[in-house]
Amino acid sequence: MHHHGYLWTGPKNRFDNEALRRPPHPEPPPAGAKPELIQRYREVAEEFPTPDLPPLETAYWLIKPRSLVRATSDDAKQAASWLHERLAEYAPRFASERDRDTSRLARLASAAAERLHSCADVSYGFYLERPTYLSLAMVTCSPNHSQPELPCPVA
Question: Is the separation of the CB atoms in 64 and 52 below 8 Å?
Fold first, then answer.
């Protein structure tokens, strides 16, 4: 069991484009479906794995390109430490003063360590200077408990 860290910053309106953050339906539309529905399914099936946008379900980071993995750790505390370091790095840019509180960030890192130790994924999101958004995730791998069929990106 190990964990992979992911980080994304970008325009909030791009983050809000849920169609690009959602995996395609497991079954394609039926043969007689409207051509625009079939075309949309093909687009999503081709595009979902490649954009760097955070997926709606944290586990789906695992099917994104290997180059998006920012950290890998076999230890839950070490993985949570990477998250804490990223939180501290971006904290001065957080839009909310409450989010900048160092004791709160330490509590988030501690909670992340507990979740990762129990093989759960961790995902945090923060507004930065408007209209920018920060998404941080640490995903449990080999296997992921919520999506065990997903392959490890660095195997």
Answer: yes
| Per-position b or e across 129-148, b if 16+ CB within 10 A of its CB | eeebbbbbbbbbbebbeebe
The count of residues in the chain is: 155
Token digits of residue 21:
């953050």
- According to DSSP, residue 127 is labeled E
Task: Say what the pTM is.
Answer: 0.89
**Kind and range of the H or E run holding 118:** none
Please name every residue paired with 9 in a beta bridge, in sequence order, or none if there are none: 134
H/E element, 137: strand 132-141
pLDDT tens-digit readout, 101-121: 999 999 999 999 999 999 999
d(CA 111, CA 29): 41
CA distance 150 to 148: 6
